[in-house]
Amino acid sequence: MSRTDVIIQGYLFKYGTPLICVIILYMIVASYFESVRNKLYALYVIKCDNVYERMTKHYKKELFSPLHSLVSANWKLRNQGLIRILEIGVRTGQNLKYYPKNSHVILADRNSRLEKHFKSADYKKIDQLNVVKYIQSYGENLAEIPDESVDAVVATLVLCSAPDVDRMLGEIWRVLVPGGIYFFLEHIQEPDDPSLRRMQNILTKIKVWPYVFDGCHLNRNVKKNIKQIKFKEVNCDHLQFDMKDPYPLKFTRTHIIGTAIK
Ligand SMILES: C[S@@+](CC[C@H](N)C(=O)[O-])C[C@H]1O[C@@H](n2cnc3c(N)ncnc32)[C@H](O)[C@@H]1O
Asked: What is the four-CA torsion angle of 38, 40, 41, 43, rounded to 10 degrees?
């Protein structure tokens, strides 16, 4: 064995074993936290989604009703009475049931694990839609979708967790045809209760909330961001839900709901 081999062997013996132990320890701790996080998230997804679904269904039905009278800018679809919809942050397809039959739909979500749930989910409505494609992508980067190519964009309960709200709104504006409509429903920072607002700030700033709830921010006011985009018209209402159960939903009780027309 050469002198260099002996030196390397010495180093490996001295530092290699502790290094391997540290890596193994790190992997155990990381997977433990990941599993805790996944469990919490699953709990949230199942419980909070159901509550949200129950609480928002009436408002969503009303919000999406203009989709049924929207006329496509594409003459072929217009002649068939169809429209093109892009949904960003589709999760497992909660909004699909509100879309007009046979609509051409593009679905986008950043979460790669959702497509399988989406496909296996019992959303019978999907059979009545023409899903043109499913894109696993951030709403901030929809390069696959050409400019001015969709009649409507739906993004509900998504901006709270977007890494770059303005960029996503810019993409929404870009892909909409002139006269196209962006439909939104988002929770925002509490406007009236200072102690709740303080809690929202703390939970978001120390990153506990975003960590557990998939990047969600409690302290955003995305109404301002929407208004800053050059939409021709923004119609926006405030909603305040009486969120009793599960507890985390108390922190997201105030919402904006509306449309923005390009
Ligand atoms: C709270 S769920 C909302 C689901 C559904 N839109 C609804 O109204 O019930 C948020 C979804 O948006 C997705 N999402 C969050 N930020 C995103 C982003 N920047 N780009 C694309 N999808 C995003 C998440 O993966 C998740 O599926």
From this structure: 120
Please give the order of strands across the beta sheet that includes 150-156: 130-136, 104-109, 84-88, 150-156, 176-187, 254-261, 233-240
Q: How buried is 103 (Cβ within 10 angstroms: 0-12 exposed, 13-18 middle, 19+ buried)? A: buried
pTM for this model (two decimals): 0.85
Instruction: Name residues contacting ligand 1 (CB within 6 A).
Output: 88-89, 91, 94-95, 108-111, 114, 138-140, 156-158, 161-162, 168
Q: For residue range 192-229, list pLDDT tens digits in order.
A: 999 999 999 999 999 998 988 889 999 999 999 999 99
Cα 213 to averaged position of ligand 1 atoms, centre (Å): 11
120 pLDDT higher than 60 = no
Which residue ranges make up each domain of the chain?
Answer: 42-261
- Residue whose Cα lies nearest atom 8 of ligand 1: it is 156
Architecture, CATH, for domain 42-261: 3-Layer(aba) Sandwich (3.40)
Pairing of strands 130-136, 176-187: unpaired
